[in-house]
Design brief:
single chain, mainly alpha, 4 helices
Length: 108
């Protein structure tokens, strides 16, 4: 039971971090005004950075969604158990890839 509480605590902490990251990335992906007084090269850099940040935002939102699902499923009897080898999935993997149903060994 203590292990489940630790998992819930760590997932909630990770959710808080990801929410903050999503908020920051959302600011960085706002449209770049065409009348902004920056040079042509600087504007191209800003557009490139925006694209990179949009990709990071998409990944952060997907991770947040996965963490929320993991949090809902934490009390399931098979939560944290590899679907292939029936061994325990390490907490670090659950936090990194909450959607994965397999341990590192079985996933590769």
């Amino acid at each position: 039971m203590k292990k489940k509480e630790e998992i819930i605590k760590k997932i909630n902490l990770e959710i808080t971090k990801i929410k903050s990251r999503v908020k920051d990335l959302s600011e960085l992906t706002k449209p770049i005004a065409p009348d902004c007084a920056i040079g042509r090269i600087s504007r191209m850099d800003a557009i490139n950075n925006k694209t990179i940040n949009e990709n990071a935002l998409r990944k952060a939102k997907n991770k947040l969604k996965g963490l929320k699902i993991a949090l809902q499923n934490v009390n399931d009897t098979d939560f944290g158990i590899c679907a292939k080898c029936d061994k325990e999935i390490p907490l670090g993997r659950i936090l990194l890839m909450p959607h994965s149903r397999f341990c590192v060994h079985c996933a590769s």
